[in-house]
# Entry
Amino acid sequence: MAALLEHTCSVCGSPHLEPFFTMSDVPIFCNILHSEQQEARNCPKGDIVLAFCPSCGFISNVAFDPAKLHYSQDYENSLHYSPRFREYINDLTQKLIERYDLRNKNIIEIGCGKGDFLVSLCELGNNRGIGFDPSYIPRAEHRHLGEKVKFIQDFYSEDYRDYQADLICCRHTLEHVANPADLLIPLRKAIGDRLNTVVFFEVPNAIDTFHRLAVWDILYEHCTYFVPSSLKQVFSECGFKITNLSEAFAGQFLCVEALPVAEKVTLGDRNFLLEESLLSATKERQLLPVGATSQATVLETSTLVTATRNRQVWTDSATYLLPETELNNVEEVESLHRDIQDFTNKFQSKIALWERKLTQIAQTKQRAVVWGAGAKGVTFLNLLKVRGAIEYIVDMNFRKHWKYVAGTGQQIVPPEFLQAYRPEVVIVMNPIYEEEIRQLVADLGLTCEVFSV
# Structure
């Protein structure tokens, strides 16, 4: 893979980005609602060129143009109409309340969407909340909260630094920001010396996308893709210390809990550039020679070290001990590097498989619907260029009903629509919802085939 000379990594600054995947002419927004079918088909489109940073594992769309994105109240991505998702959110809410004693406290949510998560935190813990999101729409079910929960229809910025909180949360927003520091640094400045402020972020897990081949999560809105190593890097560089980092929602999400630190933290043992079997130091770092008991040794920028085994690093002059956490980061990036080297071939194989399945459905004249009109469903339909073979896509979010999918123009319908339509095939876009969808289909009196992508 050739390096991109005109781009540098937004997380670690490495100039050695490797392009590995392209998609052209995809909808700019998967979650904008369109009232007319032709309008949906003529929606604005853009290109995706994914590039991998072999230093920290960060993946970004180097063809991304932020000027194309204008978030408005037509943006609808709430998942809270699914019982399975509500179960996840309730568990997460309870965990955060118990872990950080969030009772009668102040909470800020950046990118709060329609406010569901923030309201849950405030109701269950008797907390006060402020949510920031330009796509928020005042809702009747929030009126009873009065002044307890306030929504500001704007992007969070340093302009709002006077708003302070015990917990600042941000779910599925950071991946929409081309340079993560553009969000994290103003946030750190706004927190100031309130070092007990807890920060919670949740992002899609790039390992799920590129290793487990959840390829329908590649979309224009997501201009950045994170693995644990790149999350650790960007949070530390922006003045936070991660206290917990874990996978969630069957490995689809990464959750970060962090605290601000008094001074900027850098990972002194970071920033390896993996190049075949070599690791090239891009910063001065300190490594303890094997057998040494005191002063660490500084490796100069030009030092080349061979690949690590058993936490040992070899140079042409000495053997050094790599910290356990750093070794884990290196192994993680190496593993992801292997995945993305063959990703395009695996992606094309998966597309070909579904093209065959949809052709078979069309040839046998079966009625088929897709279930899930979120990002996955919209990407699935657009990548496969599905139009006539599938007319409808089902979603439980009533705000999406009778609207049209960006790009391909399928109409979004409620589950009850299927009682009259009587499909023979239901294609579930997210396997985590398959069980509840099977039950809904059975409750509707349907005997169709249900399977996940």
